[in-house]
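Morning F.,

Quick status update on the modeling queue. The single chain you submitted on Monday has been processed. Sequence for confirmation:
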Amino acid sequence: MPINIHILGAGAIGQLVGHELVSALGTRVNPILLMRSPQALGAYIKNYKSRVGVSSTDYDGIVHKRYQHLQAYCSPRQFDGPIENLILSTKAHCSAAALQKYVPKLTPASNILILQNGMGVYDMLVERYFQDPATRPRFFQGITTHGAVRVNPHMVTHLGNGAIRVAPIKHQMDTPPEFIQLMMESSVLNTSYLPYSQLLVAQLEKLVVNAVINPLTAIHDCRNGDLLKSSQIKRMMDKIVVESCAIIEKGYPELANIPEAQTVLHPHKLIQTVRQVCETTANNSSSMREDILHLRNTEINFITGHLLKLAKQHKVWSNTNWLLREMVQGRLELNRALETGAVKMIMNRQ
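Structure tokens below.
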């Protein structure tokens, strides 16, 4: 019998994971996309023949497109039994609402892998749905460095091979559950299983990188590499890193006992890391910039907002990050107002 893996959040990463699991493991695994609506499910079946495509470019510049059939539902009433394995790959701010109707399908034997940008989703879900430890599913945290964007609802461009790192949250499990072991068999996904202390360092490193690049590219409406073309923006980048490191030091005192953290999360090292990411992803448009351009809510409250929450708890200076959050939210509000004004102008001319 194949292992069922439900994927809630059929965006670029969710579909990439489902596609690569089938590519590597065939009938041993059954990834199931959980669509947001009957309309989205109908379009997937009718227009895309229940297939997810992934395109990638080899070293010779040749584009390869591969397709895999993935099962899909849009309601818990469409399938029997509990959800044994769930990958949560929605936008962070959509997690609670998206998960709500599937909560009755989750049991203490269920495994949930959170695979998103930002931090704080686990605590939010526990507070909202799983306060009783006796009935709480087993949670795992994942972070990924894969570059992936959707060029249409079910075609993903894999911009660059990365890795997925996974660790258990709030429980000890030396051997990963079977669905994570299956992910580890895919050479493309490149998944590793770590103790949470090691993952925390990587998670915080990515948080700071995202807290710099995402807001600044959204505010300035530019690609990642463009940030390095302005000396003033580079000074702002450094200031965000230094302030964020001070917040993290107070918010996560356990890092003092993790030798790797002293190097990876040092301000000077993180400044270098942020600039390196800007260089290696120079032509990429950040997810927050894309959200702003398409007038969608952003993940700012789970990236910069997580830092601000820690800063408030521990009374740490956070004015730079506070200003960034205000400017991102203001940019979204402005873009929406301009779009509404343009639509009204066109309608008045008709």
